[in-house]
Amino acid sequence: MYPRICNPLLSRSFFLLGPRATGKSSLLKVLFSQNSAVLWVNLLHFETYRKLLARPELLLEWIDSADPAPQWVVCDEIQKIPGLLDQVHDIIESRKIRFALTGSSARKLKKGAANLLGGRALVNELYPLTTEELGEDFDLKGALKWGTLPEVITASSDLERKEILRAYVGTYLKEEIKEEQIIRQLDPFVRFLEVGAQQNGEIVNATKIGRDSHTDAKTIIRYFEILQDTLMGFFLDPYQRSVRKVQTEKSKFYWFDLGVRAALEGTLDNTLIEGSSDFGRAFEHFFILELHRMAKYRRKEDRFYYIRTKDDVEIDLLVERSRKSLWAIEIKSSKNVSLDRLTASRKLASDLKVDRFIVACREERPRRIDEVEILPWQQVVRELYGEDLGR
User: Fold this and answer.
1) Comparing C-alpha atoms, which of 386, 318, 385 is closest to residue 357?
2) What is the distance between the alpha carbons of residues 4 and 278, in angstroms, rounded to a whole number?
3) Residue 11: what are its φ and ψ, rounded to 5°?
4) Taking the C-alpha atoms of 223, 224, 225 and 231 in order, what is their torsion angle to the nearest 10 degrees?
5) What is the mean pLDDT of each run of 10 residues along the chain (391 residues)?
6) Can you give the residue ranges of every domain in the chain?
7) Fewer CB within 10 Å: C terminus or N terminus of the chain?
8) Topology, domain 14-125
């Protein structure tokens, strides 16, 4: 197992939320490996699920009969019985026992519980592996093609990776969507997933996506909310500060993993050619995911945006650093960046009065031309969320 950066505080109860197969259970086993006073409750085990669904108070009986008396209760996939959180809440208050609760659907927790225990448990999020976690095993082209889910990374062949990702999509539809009865009709949602995957990183156009997936625009917006609530992706919002040109007001959506997105889109068999537009889009997706994950792990309050004006001048990413400074980042997969295509974005960055204008790219050495910093993408990640600077 790769060492994870996610490091929940063990001074109080906590949630560990994340998509399936990101390694939540494995991380908890590491965190509590030296503690024998832990009661493990796995709701994916049918008999455990059945008993607690029928009698939530049984959890307290298990705690009282455990030997040694538990200091912690680890409960996997708590969203399967959201009502169990009422029992957890009562035990935290009355017994001062701490809980570690994993889940892959914030939607179910919010609908069936007292708003994540009313702040009595801290919230942590776990994602697929980052470059820092992978260390020397990191391979950019592999990450762009297959994503970085732990099981995919450790697979023995590309054929196995392909089968894992296809099975992942089926598991998501079966267990998160169909069995949990999140939507009544599965077929329109399946069509939406393919079209939505094709639109990754684009401004959400619910009318167009609805037309392509034979669904109305309101339903498309609801589907995107389901994806966000089941932790399958997140929105990148447009920047709101007034500038010389009026920008559009719609968000972009990014899937949580490149391999899962490719499986949904049906492009796992495609070859990702360096220098192609597909390679560039994949690199932009990867880089934004990397910053999103690292900001969460380092517990930073940075906010991420994009900006596009009415005349289509765009900056890929704006990073508002704890509201103290603003970085503009253009993301280029090139190994030799030319400033010729950056004239309009440089002017827009000047209008925004950004503190830094950076081109994150695959060049090996940093260089500067006037106000433009052309940096290896790894250096940008380190400067924002590196171990020494970010913690």
Assistant:
1) 318
2) 30
3) -85, -15
4) 110
5) 94 94 96 93 95 96 95 93 90 92 80 62 95 97 98 97 96 79 82 93 93 91 91 92 53 97 96 95 98 96 94 95 90 95 94 96 96 97 75 31
6) 14-125, 131-236+257-271, 284-390
7) N
8) Rossmann fold (3.40.50)
